[in-house]
């Protein structure tokens, strides 16, 4: 495989301004079941909202709700209703609702299933700077009970305002407090009790209010500012401990502890050299964390033998810039704090196991890559915000000559930016797709779908002409896909509606017919789950894939279901298939499976569901793709990779696992693959070889060969057993002082007839690579704009003329590297075929492959300068 390293393709990362868990803690017997309903929301400066599933420490980014023009998310808060028990003894989990603010006068509620705003509300007041959710009603046993939970917000002009969420609504109620001076800003907010709110202000005060009558209960002063600085102290963050004490962080770098009964200052700790911007507390009130402009994350615990006194335990610099937001979550199996800031990467810090477990930095790149390619045209499509860019890689990274010599391509002249397209509207791009020949481009936002016909002049000026193509009956989409034969366009409306439209071309024009909706299979999802928690969010489709011949379509959702449709002649039901509107009766009221439209009259082919279904998976699919279809084979192979690193191969028409999957369960996958914490982002095919990549790794599995039963030979020799991940981890990184893992640059390959022969592969030594099946690639490094180091890759071991076919068994079964990081995406490019003199005679030969690998290192982010106590800025 030849690799073009493309760091020139941009993906601007945005600062994290807010983080919030839908539950702060999960005690009790239902904690294990309810943990599947917990989500983490991350708000960014560009208006994006990311939804993460903790997955007991696996941390899967399920959804990104794109922002829009001049939008930002500066505060997030969840309201989760109390659980209810039905007459038959089942528990309906409390419904979770997400709200945001963005330094405007509006509060927005978000519909996660449709990935767009649900409601907006605003009042006669200034921009909202902070927002808090009213705690739930609790009984004498401390168990939450059903009751209305309102929102209280503080504004830039000194108002404290009330918003009601009653009756599934969101509306402005009234202004609770109006300060005499409009110069006083309400910066931070926290609830001490259900009706008592604590507000941090910009005038060196912390105010305590009763929201029932708007009475000011107490005003606490922090005194004057530091000498030579601003006269007023800004209270950037306030939190309340379970017993009622108040914690504040301010612009002087102090963390203050206030007595919750007398409202007097009990302690003042100088733990930061600059402003303290955020705080987090544990569920039992035994730990406090603070983050600030000095990049520090500081942990505090009570002093032994000193009632009410706290001490700093340690501080770490997990971030490369200001730490702006924190949120904590605790359950019997997890105890973490997630923080974020200007460096754009969320950091998971262990709380209950502090100093016993490593922290973990999550990627600032999206789980679903913002890249696609047109292999036949050598185009690369990238997008972010409302901008699309089309690049052309003019020549292959390596040219194969008759003399078996290689000639490197000048990387400075190998790329060309063909076009930049700005999609008009207030919403940002949710998805985009380009046809394999580079002639059709589709882009979607939350409100519209745009199509473009691309005309590239290869022989003349090399310019790209763009003509818009009308798309009727489309009202926005969360994902779009073009079939490999350019005959169909599929998109997902409102998160769960599968829409299909025929593409017709005549000469130099394209026409997209009016779409019709494909019916999804009815699923038996318990009503007690659909009525509460996240509701129909689990039926949101996240993956979409066409078969190589464009006659089978697959889609997967967050409920771990996979739907299949087959293209058949109209009026013909092969293999007992269902028509577009032939839904079976089911109890899934929220899945909206009934078809609203049929295929156009006179359409010779239509999409139908096969009678047999693929069983529900145990974990959520993160990659859905079809293996290349051999010409002599009429069967299709659907490959699924899940959040648990399961690699499953199905026959989509029969719903059965393939023989390879039966012989190679997840336990036979390499320990290096199963132990990788980052999720798989995509697969690139090279014959029977699947190149599987994530943000920090690239693996190759030859799916024509069985994997060896025991992969980790070092662990076997040491302990006699395979190394397993410790199940007692708290949800961040692994335990400190665990047995050593592979070095980041180590590469191994399994070879030999039974996969029992192993070899370490050194990236700098081409001869060693070739001994296990490696060959030369090409590295594109923009740092010095010169030819980079060559990547050593797997080479096909079979000879080209008359070599013994028995050597096929000696080719590598799997391979991996950690050299590239972080990876935004890998897309295939059209490669030149070998000359006739190198024509291969053996069946099963691995064809040549060229890909573009896009890296977006964190150090290339455009970050503002950091401020230091001396008053100087460091760039």
Automatic annotation (TrEMBL):
Where along the chain is composition biased (Acidic residues)? 582-604, 757-766, 778-789
Q: Where is this region: Disordered?
A: 575-613, 717-791
Q: Which SMART domains match?
A: WD40 (SM00320)
A single Gene Ontology biological process assigned to it is: maturation of SSU-rRNA from tricistronic rRNA transcript (SSU-rRNA, 5.8S rRNA, LSU-rRNA)
Keyword S-adenosyl-L-methionine on entry: no
A Pfam family cross-referenced in the UniProt record is: WD40
Q: Which InterPro entries match?
A: Quinoprotein_ADH-like_sf, UTP4, WD40/YVTN_repeat-like_dom_sf, WD40_rpt
Q: Where are the WD repeats?
A: 269-301
Q: Name one GO molecular function term.
A: RNA binding
Q: Which UniProt keywords apply?
A: WD repeat
For this record, the Gene Ontology CC terms, alphabetical, are: 90S preribosome; small-subunit processome; t-UTP complex
Q: What is this protein called?
A: Quinon protein alcohol dehydrogenase-like superfamily
Species: Echria macrotheca
């Amino acid at each position: 495989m030849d690799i073009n390293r493309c760091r020139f393709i941009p993906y601007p990362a945005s600062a994290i301004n807010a983080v919030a868990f839908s539950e702060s803690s999960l005690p009790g017997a239902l904690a294990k079941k309810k943990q599947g309903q917990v989500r983490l929301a991350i708000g960014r400066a560009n208006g994006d909202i990311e939804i993460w599933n903790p997955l007991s420490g696996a941390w899967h980014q399920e959804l990104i709700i794109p922002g829009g023009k001049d939008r930002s998310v500066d505060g997030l808060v969840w309201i989760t209703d109390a659980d209810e028990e039905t007459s038959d003894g089942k528990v309906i989990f409390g419904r979770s609702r997400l709200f945001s603010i963005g330094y405007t006068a509006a509060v927005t509620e978000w519909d996660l299933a449709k990935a767009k705003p649900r409601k907006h509300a605003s009042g006669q007041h200034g921009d909202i700077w902070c927002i808090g959710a009213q705690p739930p009603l609790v009984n004498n046993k401390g168990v939450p009970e059903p009751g209305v939970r309102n929102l209280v917000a503080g504004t830039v002009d000194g108002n404290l305002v009330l918003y009601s969420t009653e009756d599934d609504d969101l509306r402005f109620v009234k202004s609770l407090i109006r300060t005499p001076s409009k110069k006083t800003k309400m910066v931070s907010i926290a609830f001490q009790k259900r009706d008592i709110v604590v507000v941090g202000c910009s005038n060196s005060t912390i105010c305590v209010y009763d929201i029932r009558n708007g009475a000011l209960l107490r005003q606490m002063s922090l005194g004057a500012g530091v000498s030579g600085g601003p006269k007023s102290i800004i209270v950037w963050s306030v939190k309340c401990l379970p017993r009622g004490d108040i914690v504040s962080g301010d612009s002087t770098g102090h963390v203050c502890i206030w007595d919750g009964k007398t409202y007097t200052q009990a302690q003042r700790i100088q733990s930061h050299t600059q402003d303290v911007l955020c705080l987090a507390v544990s569920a039992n009130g035994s730990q406090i964390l603070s983050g600030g402009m000095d990049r520090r994350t500081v942990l505090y615990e009570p002093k032994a033998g000193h009632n009410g006194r706290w001490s700093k335990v340690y501080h770490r610099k997990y971030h490369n810039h200001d730490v702006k937001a924190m949120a904590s979550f605790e359950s019997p199996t997890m105890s973490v704090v997630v923080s974020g800031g200007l460096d754009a990467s969320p950091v998971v810090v262990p709380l209950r196991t502090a100093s016993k477990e490593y922290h973990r930095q999550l990627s600032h790149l999206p789980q679903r890559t913002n890249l696609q390619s047109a292999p036949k045209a050598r185009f690369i499509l990238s997008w972010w915000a409302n901008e699309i860019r089309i690049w052309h890689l003019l020549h292959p990274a390596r040219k194969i000559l008759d003399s078996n010599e290689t000639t490197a391509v000048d990387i400075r002249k190998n790329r060309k930016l063909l076009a930049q397209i700005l999609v008009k509207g207030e919403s940002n791009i949710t998805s985009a797709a380009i046809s394999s020949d580079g002639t059709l481009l589709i882009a979607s936002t939350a409100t519209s779908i745009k199509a473009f016909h691309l005309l590239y002049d290869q022989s003349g000026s090399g310019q790209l002409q763009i003509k818009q193509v009308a798309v009727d009956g489309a009202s926005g989409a969360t994902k779009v896909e073009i079939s490999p034969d350019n005959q169909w366009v599929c998109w997902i409306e409102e998160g769960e509606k599968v829409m299909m439209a025929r593409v017709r071309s005549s000469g130099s024009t394209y026409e997209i017919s009016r779409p019709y909706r494909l019916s999804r299979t009815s699923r038996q999802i318990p009503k007690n789950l659909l009525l509460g928690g996240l509701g129909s969010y689990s039926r949101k489709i996240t993956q979409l894939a066409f078969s190589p011949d464009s006659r089978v379509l697959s889609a997967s959702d967050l409920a771990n279901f996979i739907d299949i449709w087959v293209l058949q002649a109209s009026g013909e039901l092969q293999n007992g298939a269902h028509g577009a509107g032939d839904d079976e009766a089911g109890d899934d009221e929220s899945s909206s499976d009934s078809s609203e439209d049929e295929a156009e009259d006179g359409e010779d082919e239509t999409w139908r569901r096969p009678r047999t279904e693929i069983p529900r998976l145990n974990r959520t699919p993160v990659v859905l793709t079809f293996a290349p279809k051999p010409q002599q084979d009429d069967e299709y192979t659907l490959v699924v990779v899940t959040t648990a690193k399961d690699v499953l191969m199905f026959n989509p028409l029969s719903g059965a696992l393939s023989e390879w999957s039966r012989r190679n369960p997840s336990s036979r996958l390499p320990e290096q693959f199963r132990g990788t914490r980052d999720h798989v982002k995509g697969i690139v095919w090279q014959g029977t070889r699947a190149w599987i990549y994530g943000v920090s790794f690239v693996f190759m599995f030859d799916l024509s060969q069985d994997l060896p039963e025991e992969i980790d030979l070092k662990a076997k020799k040491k302990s006699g057993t395979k190394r397993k991940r410790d199940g007692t981890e708290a949800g961040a990184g692994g335990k400190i002082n665990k047995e050593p893992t592979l070095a980041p640059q180590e590469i191994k390959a399994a070879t030999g007839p039974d996969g029992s022969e192993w070899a370490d592969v050194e990236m700098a030594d081409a001869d060693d690579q070739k001994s296990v099946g490696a060959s030369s690639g090409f590295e594109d490094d923009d740092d010095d704009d010169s030819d980079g180091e060559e990547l050593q890759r797997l080479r096909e071991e079979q000879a080209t003329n008359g070599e013994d076919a028995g050597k096929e068994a000696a080719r590598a079964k799997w391979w991996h590297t950690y050299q590239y990081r972080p990876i935004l995406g890998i897309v295939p490019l059209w490669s030149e075929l070998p000359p006739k003199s190198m024509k291969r005679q053996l069946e099963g030969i691995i064809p040549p492959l060229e890909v573009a690998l896009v890296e977006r290192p964190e150090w290339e982010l455009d970050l503002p300068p950091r401020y230091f106590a001396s008053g100087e800025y460091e760039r």
